[in-house]
Amino acid sequence: MKILAIESSCDETAVAVVENGRKALSDCIASQVALHRVYGGVVPEIASRKHIEAIYPLADEALKTAGVTRKDIDAVAVTYAPGLIGAVLVGVNFAKAAAFSLSVPLIPVHHIRGHIAANYLADPELAPPFLCLAVSGGHTMLVHVKDYTEMEILGGTRDDAAGECFDKIARVLGMPYPGGAALDRAAQTGDGTKYPLPRAQVDGNPLDLSFSGLKTAAINLIHNAAQKGETVDVPSLCAAVCAAVSEALVSRTELALAQTGCKTLAVAGGVAANSRIRADVLALAQRRGLRLCLPPLSLCGDNAAMIGAQGYYEFLAGNVADQTLNAYATKSVLGEAL
């Protein structure tokens, strides 16, 4: 089964052709990073307009790269939530038109489910049940993947996502967008023990996380140093931030593994590209004798191949939509509106 998949939830226009949920025949991306860098972050209206300009030619490119024609497409899958509403709407409306014109099923896919499914492309042998640490700019959660479309959220952030924490601190440090990647690069030469930063615990659920205090502590440290005319050791501060975030994520992951009894751990989302987090998760897997699925960097960020991968399993489960499908800025990974 060949699925034309579309992703436009933020600032990457992406179209892919995926076969049977496990093989990406093409995965084309039109990045807007250079466009938004001047503003220090994504400007939603600009992102939406650029999606409109890019999506049609990108779909043709994806078909050509995959070596297929429109007649070979069996279904269309699209990110319908969550994301920047104007951006998501572009993808949803294009997908609805494509599915209608091709007379094929339309498959709505949750963006975070897509990130989790990136692991099916990276590891064709991976199958539920497993535990997934999903970490991105807007989401941080531990998901028990019981089946391809049956999931349980065990814990998540009560405030800022891990990626948001990285990006905001990087911006205050004057680093270019995307800040999380720049902060990670700077951390490579730093001493992560130089600056003591807080690690929050959440009353009521030991698997929940909180990063707002860490973000505030780091930003206050930067501002206080500037007011006193002191110089901040930027690489060391970046290393300390990465260490604090990673320790919080890995400690909760270890608790969730014990709670679920899962022997397989997957990591998903853009923040899964962070080198400290990757190293610490690998160490956890080795220590506990786990099967680890850690996708390559190309599958960590937003892409359409992951939407096609999850779309295949949503289709098998009967989760298809009609032409009334709408886009949503917020939606639970389980399907209920927040």
| Average pLDDT over all residues | 95
Strand order, largest beta sheet:
3-2-1-4-5
Cα Rg = 20 Å
| Fraction of residues in helix | 40-55%
**Poorly predicted residue ranges:** none
**Helix/strand-derived class?**
alpha/beta
Shape: globular
The run of helices and strands is: EEEHHEHEHEEEHHHHEHEH
Tell me the CATH topology of the largest domain. Answer: Nucleotidyltransferase, domain 5
Strand content: 15-25%
**Total number of beta strands:** 10
CATH class category of the largest domain: Alpha Beta
Can you tell me about this structure?
The model has no long low-confidence stretch (mean pLDDT 95). This protein is 44% helix and 18% strand. The chain is built from 10 helices and 10 strands. With 338 residues, the chain is of the alpha/beta class. The protein has helices at residues 33-37, 44-66, 85-102, 111-122, 162-172, 179-187, 212-228, 234-260, 275-288, 305-316; strands spanning 2-7, 12-19, 23-31, 75-81, 106-110, 130-135, 140-145, 151-156, 264-268, 291-293. α5 (162-172) crosses α6 and α6 packs across α8 (234-260). A hairpin with a 4-residue loop joins β1 and β2. The two termini are 32 Å apart. It has 2 domains: 2-116 and 302-316, ATPase, nucleotide binding domain (Nucleotidyltransferase, domain 5), CATH 3.30.420; 128-298, ATPase, nucleotide binding domain (Nucleotidyltransferase, domain 5, 2-Layer Sandwich). It has a 5-stranded mixed β-sheet with strand order 3-2-1-4-5, sandwiched between helices. Strands 8-7-6-9-10 form a 5-stranded mixed β-sheet, with helices on both faces.
